[in-house]
Request: fold
Amino acid sequence: MVFSEEEALRRLRQGDARVFAQLVDQYKDMVINLVSRMLGQTADAEDLAQEVFLRVWKGLPRFRGEAKLSTWIYRIAINLCIAHKKTARARAQFLPADEPATWVHPNMRTERDNPYAEEAPLKAKLAELIPQMPEKYRTALTLFYLKDLSYLEIGEIMDVPMGTVKSHLFRGKAWLRERLLSGGSAEEEL
Amino acid sequence: MKHDEAMMLLPEYLDGSLPRDQHEAITRLLETDAELHRAFEEEKMLDRILRTQAWVRARPDFTSRVLQSAGVPVPQGEAVLDRVLERLSAYAPVGTLALVAGLYGRAIATRLWDLWRGALGWAGGAVGLGKLDTNPVFAITTLALVIGAGVVAFELSRRGQSSA
Reply:
């Protein structure tokens, strides 16, 4: 059964498990992709996505509904990724980049189907670069390209004005372009 | 518009969110400013790569694992029923269409054919070709040509927009 967001929220606050299951079903792929792109293709993506939904479930009584439910979920995911990254840095333990993050759907598009297959090496390099980007640029770019969220929605998730989102996107792309196309070092940050 | 301003606005130019006057100004500038043109081509490529990143799916048991770790009990029967209903609702429009086609398909096809012949008859009269509405091969060839021309026009306009 499909509910309006208000009705779903009301039921979720009452602890309706079925609506929560529907919510997880609806957002799980988005959250997993958001997490895996923010952190790189790590085996932790599903665990972190699971943690996102646990926080959503626990935080529901405090959620006032001022933002859209999706905005709130993405914000939790982003905050968790940032915290995870900081912990990982503190421990100086880098996660292996070549481990598959999650189960890959058999119908998923492959490089063989890609008409721009010659760009595959650039794409691979990009996947390595994104987790190394300055956090604000990485967050804006990931949200923008994950599901074509509007500048306004990204601003709400990141809690910054729309102009700042545009600036982050511009500078983030410049950061990537410099390293992707000019072969610059990925280690240095702007 | 100056070069630096145009460089800053390239991402919005690419996603089509600029006001018309700014969009046109950049289009004009792209024809004369080689550096801007190169930056635009790079921007397009980067945009394409970012848009076509691999999309991963959660494992099929992801939701049940979340519910389990949250300590949320979900009656399995209801969960399965919900999913079945959800899938069915997705196919409802196709099913309805199939049903209508099954019940009234012949009548609809006949009516459409009559309409088409009427249109061809009118067109044939206008250009002096009587057989447009009487010869099925001629009629179908004309229909194919009309559809083909439409597809070509659509494709050309789409390419024109995407390269703008």
Summary: The mean pLDDT of chain B is 79.
